[in-house]
Structures are given as structure tokens and as C-alpha cells.
Fold Collagenase 3.
Amino acid sequence: MLWLSLLTLLVPGQVPVRSLPFHAPDPPTPRHAGPSEADQEFAEEYLRHFYGYQPKSERQRRSVDSGGDADWRTGLCDKLQNMQRFFGLPPSGQLTQETVAVMKKPRCGLSDVERFEDTIRWRRRTLSYRISGSNLPISASKLHKVFRAAWKLWSSVAPMKFHKRRRREADIVISFHNGDHKDGSPFDGKGGILAHAFLPGSGVGGDVHFDAEEAWSFNSTGYNLFAVAAHEFGHALGLPHSSDPGAIMYPAYIFDPSYELRLSFRDVKDIQRLYGVSTNFASLFSKNPPPRTPDKCDPDLSFDAVTELQQEVLFFKDRFMWRKHPQFDETGITLINSLWPDSAPPSLDAAYQNVRENLIVFFKGHQYWLLRQQVLEEGFPRNISDLGFPSRVKSVDAALHFRNDSYTVFFTGRECWKYNEQQKMMEESPALIEQMWPGIPAPIDAAVFYDGFVHFFQGNIHYKYDSNSRHVISTSAANEVLECNKEDNETLRERR
Ligand SMILES: [Zn+2]
Ligand SMILES: [Zn+2]
């Protein structure tokens, strides 16, 4: 791998204090996209705090600057790759702008790599909790209501009971603190770290601390206290962080007001492994089981939509997506709204990237969304009839963009439509898929052009198609495009 000096990335006027040992982004990333000195310092501290990176002494650093200790550089790079894998980013070991942006998102204060022993858990199944301290952001009665609901998430799946205490000592003490509160993990003011908790045990064991400076709320303004409490209570019961972005134990703050906050399948498995299964679990969840995050190793996996995005190919499923980067075999899963907060709908029908205009277009039902630089264009979503579809077309199954010829093919049921991106109009009346794309079944789920071929997806089948000779080159399981590697499989890794 290429090691570039930070000096080559500095814009004129900046003075290097010392170079930090992150991989510099490879060309063609614009020079100005290189990480700033402040971001590099921030990233090093982040990796120290959350990924077990141990900085060397100043003397060793100086030897790095003079070209010495390569192990130290490699060590930091490895930790950065661990972080990128955890969050479903391409594991480049490069401090990209996107990586820095993920690091700066609000999150829990606990490490992502500490693996707790299974034996760290409460021996009793009935635990007490109390709210302590004076700087409560909301009235105690409202807090109790929120916390009761958060405990209930856990007690409905595991055989546990949680009792509130007003005065006497309790197993779990919940409190709000400003800045340094003398437990070795100071809070950092608005944003950043929102809360932390202690593993089960005596004394501070099981205690939960919230950053008093956050704008706590009961809805989607500020930080939703219920969502953060549900996560921290998981730690108080002995759970570590999960890299499953659908799990409550995912370390980043995620609150989507359009989703009911629930424990995921992963959260339920993890807590039940510690404490067993609640007696009424089956009856409570038989009709509405805990949601499972889609798994790239599932041979029945299908996709909602697939699109190119810059060098990557994105595969969408429910509110998640996998990112396939040409330089890496691994594909990480992440939430759609981690890249497009608030502006991309879940469970898409179709998506494509208009490279020339630097736009990404999403389809769901009768609407479409136009985003530029991750921001929704004004006046969107709009009705797909604006693109020239007749009113009988209610939704779009797939969109296939050809950047060189600047047109897009839309698939709806058994038909396909050609849209001229330069004239912004539908070119002709629709054709039948079976005539235009012989060998491709209808309706299809998703279509994308990359590596010189068109890739169609229907159910769990992937059709690789040569658009010149107009025939199917090969078929395979859809999930094979994501390179399921059993050793990389998040599911297996976390269950080890
Ligand atoms: Zn946490
Ligand atoms: Zn604390």
C-alpha cells in the first residue's frame, strides 16, 4: 500500500505540526479532501477511546516522523480498518472524510471492541433502580415513565424484573452529569458521547450516566432519551456493542421516528444467552417477532434496489444497504439513513445514480426523490408521473442508468421505458421486457450496470447480462455478489 506524506495533502497556508500515520487518500480523491490536522488528532483519540489503540510515547513518535517505527503506523491503520468494518465503511485504513464524519456522529461512550465475558451478569433476576442527583433535564415522573418503558423492552424477552426505588440504595443508579464527573470518563458537552454505563456488579456496577448537556427529548428533536436509555440499560445488564446496525446495542445514536423502537433479533439472542428466555416470550412475539437485520450470507437474500454510487455499488434491503467497493472483497452493511439522514425512504423500489448531474434518484411507490450531495432537492419527493409515466403506472420496479449514453431504463411490471436524461423526457412508448431483454424474467427487483455488464436481480437470483449480444451470461444466487465470507460474517464473529 502507498504511504503518502501528509505534506503532499496540505493546502497552501497550512503548517504541519507533525504528520500522523493514517493512510492518505489515494488519487483521484481531490487533494483538498485530505484530513486536517485536527481531524487526525480527533481520529487518533477516537481510536484510542473506542478501538483499544495504544499511542506510543513522544520519543517513539519522533522516530516515526523520521521514518522509524512502521509497526506503530500499521497499528493505527489496523484500528482504523476495524472501525471502518464495524460501521460498514470500505475498510481502506484511510482517514476519508466519510470516516471522520462517522466518527463525529453522536454515540455511546463505551468501547466497540471490548468483549465482556459471558459471566459478567447479575445473579439475581429482580433488580432495583433509582434516579439520583439534582440536575435532571426533565421532571422525575416523566423520567420514570421513559425508563420504565426502556426496562420493559428487556424484561419482556428475558426473565427479569426491574423495580423503581425512590430513596433506598438500588442496584442500578441512573444520573445526569456535566463534563468530568470523577469516574474517569468525562462527558464532552453537546453531541459526541451521549451516555455510558457500567457492567453489572456492586458499587457503580450497572449504573447509567447521561450527559446532562444534551438536549434530551421524548421525540425526534434533540436526542431521544428512550432510545439512549434502552441502549445503556443493555450495558447495565452486561451486553457489549453490536456491529449489527439493526441492533439497539449498535453504538451510534440512531433514532428513526418512523420506526417503533424495538429490540432486534440480535439483541434478543444476546440478552437471552445471559439470562434465559422469559416465560411469555413466545406468546408476546409469535405474531410480531423481533426484526432481523438482513444477512448477506442468507442464500434466500433478495434486494429492493441496486445502484452505482461513485466507485461503489450499493445494494438496498429494507432500511439497510451493503456497499461494494472495487478495491475490497468485503461488503459492509449499514443503515441507508447513515448516508442520507432523513431524506431517503426505507424499503426502496428502485435507485440509480445520474453521474453527469451528480444526482442520486430513489423510487418508492408513486414517488421519487432527487438528492445532490446527500441533500434532498427542493420540491421532492415528487410524483413519478412527472417523469412521463401514465397514471396506470403506480410504481417503478427497477432503474438502469447508462452513463455514456445518458439515458435510464425504467422497469415496471412486464414493461420497460426509456428516459432521455438530457432532454428530461420519456423517449418512446414502453416495450416488453421479454422483447428488449430476452432471458430476463418480469417483474424484476433491481438492475444496475457495472463492470461492463447489466446485473438484474429477481428474488434470490442474479442474472449477469451482456447488453451487446442481448443474452444472459450467467445466473447465480443474488447474495453471491456480496461475497459472503464465513470468517467475516458479522453474525458468526459476534457469536464466537
Ligand atoms: Zn453503548
Ligand atoms: Zn460517568
